[in-house]
Each structure stands twice: as structure tokens, then as C-alpha cells.
Amino acid sequence: MSILAGKKVIIIGDRDGVPGQAIELCAKSAGADVVFSSTECFV
Question: CA 3, CA 36: separation in Å to the nearest integer?
């Protein structure tokens, strides 16, 4: 059992780093319930 199993998560990715969609796939595969996912530009 993973530490994210059954947890609700909010994901904010970085345009120049790891995008939100990639983090979302990892979180979902770990059993998390993704409530919000976005990729932002932090300049």
C-alpha cells in the first residue's frame, strides 16, 4: 500500500521543469485521487 492511496492531491507543475500531467500520472499510479492538476510558468 502506498502513502498516497486514497488521498486527494492538488498538483502544480512547472512549464520549464516537470509538467503537471507527468506528476498526475505518477500520483494516479500511486493510488491518489487527483482533484486539480495544472502546469504553470514561474518567471
Answer: 19
Which stretches within the chain are classed as H helix?
20-29
Predicted TM-score of the model (pTM): 0.84
**Dihedrals phi, psi of 11, to nearest 5 degrees:** -120, 130
Does an H or E element contain 11, and which? Answer: strand 8-14
Burial of 24-37, coded b for 16+ CB within 10 Å and e otherwise, reads beebeeeebebeeb
pLDDT in tens, 1-43: 688 999 999 999 999 999 999 999 999 999 999 999 999 998 8
